[in-house]
Structures are given as C-alpha cells and as structure tokens.
Amino acid sequence: MFTGIVSGIGQIVSLNGNDVVRLIVNFGDVSVSGLEKGASVSVDGVCLTVVNFEQSVVSFDVIPETLSVTTLGEKSEGMYVNLERALKFGSEIGGHLLSGHIIGKGEIISRDEGDENVDIFVKCSPEVMKYIQKKGYVAIDGISLTIGEVEENNGFHLHLIPETLKLTTIGSKKLGDLVNIEVDSMTQMVVTTVERMLEAKA
After folding, report:
1. Burial tier of 35 (Cβ tally within 10 Å: 0-12, 13-18, 19+)
2. Using 50, 70 and 90 to split pLDDT, how confident is the model at 109?
3. How far is CA 119 from CA 79, 150, 175, in A?
4. For residue range 147-187, what is the model confidence (pLDDT) as tens digits?
5. In degrees, to the nearest 5, what angle opens at C-alpha 121 toward C-alphas 5 and 168?
6. Engineered SS bond to 106: which of 35, 56, 85, 122, CB 3.0-4.6 Å?
7. How far apart are CA 160 and CA 83, in angstroms?
C-alpha cells in the first residue's frame, strides 16, 4: 500500500527488453535504507517489485500488461519518475490509501500558470470519469491530489501548490503528456456496487 505522498524523484537509467522489460531507476536522494528484493515501490504511481539493487540504483521487471495500461511503456532513458516506498505499519498517512493499480491514463490538455501555482486540466475516458468527483481524491503519477472542477465525461481540473510542483514531476508536464490515474478502492467499490444495483433494477 502507498499514500500518494511522493518520497522524491528518480531518473531512469535504462528500460530494455522485449517481453518482460527491465526498468532500472537511480533513486538519487530517495532513501533505499531497508530496501530488499521483493519489496514494493510506487514508480509514477505503478506498484513494482524490486528484483535487484546496488546502492541507489534499483531494478524492476515490468510485464507487457503494465506497459500497455500505464505510461511506463512510453518512458525512456533519462526521464524522471515519482517514487514512493511502501507504507509501513504505524506510519502517518498524509495522502490517501493507494494500491499502485492504475485504472487508466489521462492527457494534459491545458496548463495555466499563476505566480506560484499551476492549474492543469486532465482529459480522460468516461470509464475513468465515472469515479471522478469534485473535492474527491485522485492519484496522478502516484501523487495524491484533490480534484478541482469536473467537466462531465471529459476531464477534471487540478490546482497545484508550490510544494507539489517542487517535490514531484508534475510541474514539468507539458500539453499532450500522459499521466497515470488511480482512484481509491473505496470509491471504485461504491461506484461499481451502484452500477450493479441499477442494472439489476433495469
């Protein structure tokens, strides 16, 4: 489990392979203390398993399904990713609970910069939009954020504060860039249950 409170930014060292792809990330200033093989790490919001590490350089294996449903399939050497170590029992939860299971991708189609803040609009499919509600939580590339205004069946706005822009990759996103989207499991369960009830009545 994760919280969406990003530990820091890592840089992709390499991304190679045909079927299963080996993703190698330099964690930089992100602590690897206590990291072990088999540990879970959120990489741009995607839950991945550590297969090897040497000092601050950590390796993961990524299967084709993960590459197709997330933005990891579009990454390349030198690009930056958000990193979060798995939640430990007893740790403070500053964001909201996440599993690292991406439900879809969104596209940044507008970006308005203020003096210190940035507002972006993320366009996504109706399959994702059914889980989106104003003032609800959403994880964008593993970052726990509060949803702003919602445009039905089209997308939603995010209002980004300086701290988020400084500590994550979202401040460097450009128009047309894709992002990973995860909605908390409770919201997904409620929406799915209501849909089933309505289908049963019909």
Report:
1. middle
2. very high
3. 23, 13, 12
4. 999 998 899 999 999 999 999 999 999 999 999 999 988 88
5. 25
6. 122
7. 18
